[in-house]
Specification:
The protein has a domain at 71-255: MetI-like fold (Orthogonal Bundle), CATH 1.10.3720.10. 70% of the residues lie in helices and 0% in strands. It has helices at 2-12, 14-32, 50-53, 60-66, 71-89, 91-102, 106-117, 124-134, 141-148, 162-190, 194-202, 207-232, 240-245, 252-255, 258-267, 272-298. The two termini are 25 Å apart.
C-alpha cells in the first residue's frame, strides 16, 4: 500500500522528478563512480601498473602523513583559517541581510544588493590580481593611503609578510561572498509573518528589539543548518584563494593547508597514493564532524536529518 502510494506520488510529480534527474546523474557520474579511486590510499599506486597491479601497503601513507614534519603546521593552519572564516565570515551575510531588510528605499536597496553580489561572480584569479594590485608596494592604493596620512615611511609588502596573511585572506573572502551568501537569509526573512512585527510595534518594541525577538528566532532554523554545514567543512579552509594569495614561499608557514599541501606534495610530486590518503583522512573527519554537529543541533529541534 505504501509502495503503491509512493509510485502514484512519483508519477504525479513526474515533471518535477525529471528536473531533478540531470542533477542526480551529474552527482552519480562525477561523485560516486570515481569513489573507487580511494583505493589508491592503501596502495603504492603506479600509473603503469594500474589499480589491479599496484601493491597494497595498508595504512603506510596515513602513517607517513602523521609522521611528516609538516603535519602539525598544516593542521594548525587549516583549523585556524577555517575557524576565522566561520567566526567572521559566517555572521557577516546574516548581518548584511538584517541591514538590507531594514532599508525602505527599494532603489537604494537594489543598488546595494547588486554591488554586494557582483564579487561572487569573479574568479579567484581576478580577485587575487585585484588584491595584489591594491596591496602592491609599487603605487598600491593601500600603501599610497598609509603614506598619505603619514602612518608609514616606506611601502609595506603585505603579501610577503606572514603576520598579515590571515587578515588579508579572511577579509577578501568575506568581501567576495557576503552578498551572495545573504540571499538565503533575505529569502528566509521575507517569509516571516508581518503580523508579528505589527503586534510587536503595538507593544512598543522598536526595530532593534524586533530583530532580536522576531527576525532572528524566525530564521534560526536556516542559520543552524548553515552552521552545521560550516562545521562539517571545518577542514576545507580553501584552495583557490590560498593557492593564489599565498603563492609567496615566505608565507608557507601560515598558508599551507591540507588542500594546498595535497596539491604541492601529492600531485606536483606525483605521490598520488599519499595525496589520496590525506584527502581521504580529511573527508572521513569532515563527515564525522558533520554528523556530530547535526546530532547536537537535533537537540534544539533543527537538523539536516
Amino acid at each position: 500500500m505504501i509502495q503503491s502510494s509512493a509510485i502514484k506520488r512519483f508519477i504525479k510529480q513526474l515533471d518535477i522528478q525529471l528536473m531533478v534527474l540531470p542533477a542526480l546523474v551529474f552527482i552519480f557520474v562525477f561523485s560516486y563512480i570515481p569513489m573507487y579511486g580511494v583505493l589508491t590510499a592503501f596502495q603504492d599506486y603506479s600509473v603503469f601498473k594500474g589499480f589491479l597491479g599496484s601493491p597494497w601497503v595498508g595504512f603506510k601513507h596515513f602513517e607517513a602523513f602523521f609522521n611528516s614534519p609538516e603535519y602539525w603546521k598544516v593542521i594548525r593552519n587549516t583549523i585556524i583559517i577555517s575557524s576565522l572564516k566561520i567566526i567572521i565570515g559566517f555572521p557577516a551575510p546574516i548581518i548584511l541581510a538584517l541591514m538590507l531588510n531594514e532599508v525602505k528605499n527599494m532603489t537604494f536597496k537594489r543598488v546595494i544588493q547588486t554591488i554586494s553580489y557582483l564579487p561572487h561572480f569573479l574568479s579567484w584569479v581576478i580577485v587575487s590580481g585585484f588584491v595584489a594590485s591594491l596591496l602592491s608596494t609599487d603605487n598600491g592604493s593601500l600603501n599610497l593611503l598609509l603614506r598619505g596620512v603619514n602612518l608609514i615611511d616606506e611601502p609595506i609588502n603585505f603579501l610577503s609578510l606572514p603576520e598579515y596573511f590571515w587578515t588579508i585572506l579572511v577579509t577578501t573572502g568575506v568581501w567576495k561572498e557576503i552578498g551572495f551568501s545573504s540571499i538565503v537569509y533575505l529569502a528566509a526573512i521575507a517569509g516571516v509573518d508581518q503580523h508579528l512585527y505589527e503586534a510587536a510595534a503595538i507593544d512598543g518594541a522598536g526595530r532593534l528589539k524586533q530583530i532580536f525577538l522576531i527576525t532572528l528566532p524566525s530564521i534560526m532554523p536556516v542559520i543552524v543548518i548553515f552552521m552545521i554545514l560550516a562545521i562539517g567543512n571545518l577542514l576545507n579552509a580553501g584552495f583557490d584563494d590560498i593557492l593564489l594569495l599565498g603563492s609567496n614561499p615566505a608565507l608557507r608557514d601560515v598558508a599551507d593547508v591540507i588542500d594546498t599541501y595535497v596539491y604541492r606534495v601529492g600531485i606536483q610530486n606525483s605521490r598520488f597514493s599519499y595525496a589520496t590518503a590525506v584527502g581521504l583522512l580529511k573527508a572521513v573527519i569532515s563527515v564525522g564532524m558533520l554528523a556530530g554537529a547535526n546530532y547536537i543541533a537535533r537537540k534544539s529541534g533543527n537538523s539536516l536529518w
